[in-house]
Structure formats: C-alpha cells, structure tokens
Amino acid sequence: MSDHIDAVRSALLASVSLGDDQTRTLAEAIAHTSEPGLRQVTLSLYNQLAGDLSSQLPDAEVVVQMVDGEPKLVAEPKSSGFTPSAQAEMDDDPVRTTVRLPTYLKNDVEAAAKSAGISINTWIVDAIRSALHRSKLGTPPQNPSPFSSGSMSGWYS
C-alpha cells in the first residue's frame, strides 16, 4: 500500500513541479495530509476485492490481513460458522474492554468495518476470532505489533 501511496504523492508533486514555490509548498502539504485518506481508500479497495474473490470461491474466503502495516490478501477455508466456541459466545454475556490504537490503525479498522458493512466492534471481534483460530492451527502472527513492549498494562472491568 505504501508503494501506491508514494506513487500518488510523486505524481501530484510532479504535476506541480513547474509551478512557483508557493504552489509546490501547497502541493507538498496536500500530499502529506492526504495519506490517511489514501490509506483508507486503498484498504477499502482491498476489502472490496477480498469480498469479490470470496464470492467466486466455493470453499474459501479471502480476507485482508495487515502485515507490517501493509494489506495482504489471504484465502482461508470456509467454516460452517458454528463451533463450540460459537456456542460459548452465545451463552456468555459480552465483556467491555478498552483498547488503545494508533490513529492510522483506528482509521483502517473503521474503513474495513464500513467496507464490510458491519460495526467496528463486530469487525474487531471477527479479527480477534480469526487470529485465535490461526494461532490454534499453529500459524501465529508473523510480526508482533511494533507498539507492544511485551508487557501488559491497563485495567480490566
């Protein structure tokens, strides 16, 4: 995704390269401030592509995974949707927890949820469930969060 955003930025700056200093400064400011929006649109396109591909695959679902801040399309086997943990979910009362996210990640989550037509909470629960499922299959996340120190802090209610 970063390569595509850099290409858009370069194209914008190249288009004003013949302008005066004020025009180039303005273009640089626009290019810099438009990055979050470009990331959101790009992630939305990845999610749309994943949905389109999933609809064409009878036994797999294509999902977007973020690896080092970059989206990656991954095909996962479709499940029946009902597992023992799904039954436990129906029996359990939801628990509220607080998660602190970097702004860019929050924006990407919001975009992904909107693109999928679901709430942010549902999207996060699905992402956690998917990560736990992959972990149980012996495929742990490839890259831990750069924001994690390995220790836990915060509060639980």
From TrEMBL:
Cited InterPro entries: Arc_rbn_hlx_hlx, Ribbon_hlx_hlx, Uncharacterised_HicB
Classification via Gene3D superfamilies: Met repressor-like
GO biological process, one term: regulation of DNA-templated transcription
Pfam families attached to this UniProt entry: HicB
Record field: compositional bias (Polar residues): 145-157
SUPFAM superfamilies membership: Ribbon-helix-helix (SSF47598)
Positions of region (Disordered): 135-157
Name assigned to this protein: HicB family protein
Taxon lineage: Bacteria, Bacillati, Actinomycetota, Actinomycetes, Actinomycetales
